[in-house]
Design brief:
By secondary structure, the protein is α+β, with helices and mostly antiparallel strands. The chain is 15% helix and 21% strand. The strands form four sheets. Strands 1-5-2-4-3-6 form a six-stranded mixed barrel. Strands 12-17-13-14-15-16 form a six-stranded antiparallel beta sheet, covered by helices on one side. The longest helix has 13 residues. It is elongated and about 65 Å long. The relative contact order is 0.13.
């Protein structure tokens, strides 16, 4: 146990693979990490403003180094890679982190909502991370439960191993930890240093012209006009003119396209997590949560969705629910669990379907404003 305690005191296991890992962490005396009020208030201003923060086009496989930043000094750990195989290579929302090495995880809790050491940042919030004379932009695609102080500083962030390597951070047997600086990228349009006083205008909300990102494909493809388009491989391109909530819904759908159908699957887990399988209601609810139209702990059966939102069809989204099934149309593409409209209706599994199916016996509902 002494060896385990030493390892866990040195670094953070960001992904909770089983209850055993949680128990080991507790036995090792690791607590969740708090953070100063100024930094918490500064970063919290970006939370809850929507489910989809974004980075510039092309970010992902390319980590572009820049001049050192002047942000807040915090404690950081490295995760993933040969020294930390238990972390795997998939982010909490399904992103392939090997394809997106410009990734960080916010620490502090066991779920996306409770990992709030930096205020509970939105998915894909960008931060400029500085180590020594190098810096680069990273995006939040993960979370972790944290640990004790690092170099006398609150431990608030995990850096994906490829990103840490690009910054030239020393890596010793998977146990690297140390101090870095984090700040808002200047392209966000306001003062960017995270260490400013609480209450300053430091919202981390993305510029509205940027597109949502979706896993596993990385960037969400946009298409002209007001109608979504089915892409080869079963993913959907979002209309460029659609509201941000609609783009986020399509991005969330792209995360789980092709997942197997299992009756009752994915109920009982947070909607922010990607499940191995889904049924009709849990898959629809995952998408609606992506657009921040449902709370993260929502898990109702299809019959309860008969009272979702407002009656009738919406401009961008219409949900059809009954006691036995639920499906919906998002910008003209149907989200469904099977090929219900016959030949040419796309894949037979969970995902996007191009044809219109019968709505007999279903109640039409739509979210207000969409």
């Amino acid at each position: 146990m002494a060896t385990v305690s030493a390892m866990l005191a040195q670094r953070t296991r960001h992904r909770v693979r089983s209850g055993t890992l949680v128990l080991i962490a507790l036995l090792a005396g690791i607590g969740f990490v708090g953070i100063g009020p100024a930094l918490f208030a500064t970063l919290m201003s970006g939370n809850g403003s929507g489910g989809c923060g974004t980075g510039p086009a092309g970010s992902g496989t390319s980590i572009v180094l820049g001049a050192p930043g002047n942000g807040r000094l915090v404690g950081a750990t490295e995760y993933g890679g040969p020294g930390d195989p238990s972390s795997g290579s998939t982010g909490a929302r399904g992103d392939n982190l090997l394809a997106h090495p410009d990734t960080y995880a916010e620490l502090g809790g066991l779920t996306w909502q409770t990992a709030s050491a930096m205020g509970g940042l939105a998915y894909m919030t960008p931060l400029r991370v500085t180590s020594g004379e190098r810096s680069a932009i990273a995006y939040k695609r993960d979370f972790g439960f944290g640990g004790g102080p690092v170099a006398g500083l609150p431990r608030v962030i995990d850096l994906w191993w490829q990103f840490a390597e690009r910054l030239g951070i020393p890596y010793e047997n998977g146990l690297w930890s140390g101090a870095i600086r984090i700040q808002r990228p200047p392209e966000s349009g306001a003062a960017n240093t995270l260490g400013q006083a609480a209450g300053a205008d430091l919202a981390l909300a993305p510029a509205p012209s940027r597109a949502c990102r979706a896993a596993p494909s990385g960037a969400l493809t946009l298409t002209p006009g007001e109608r979504a388009r089915l892409l080869p491989g079963g993913l959907a391109a979002a209309p460029a003119s659609a509201p941000s909530a609609v783009k986020a819904i399509i991005a969330a759908g792209n995360q789980i396209v092709g997942k197997p159908y299992v009756y009752g699957a994915a109920h009982g887990q947070p909607l922010s997590e990607v499940a191995p399988a889904y049924d009709c209601s849990s898959s629809v609810e995952h998408l609606l949560y992506g657009g921040r139209l449902l709370p993260v702990d929502y898990g109702a059966a299809s019959s309860e969705l008969e009272s979702f939102g407002e009656p009738g069809s919406g401009r961008w989204l219409t949900l059809y629910a009954s006691a036995a099934h639920v499906f919906m149309y998002v910008a003209g593409l149907r989200w469904d669990t099977h090929d219900a409209a016959g030949p040419g209706d796309g894949s037979q599994g969970i995902g996007w379907h191009p044809l219109v199916r019968s709505a007999a016996g279903f109640v039409a509902r739509h979210p207000a404003g969409l």
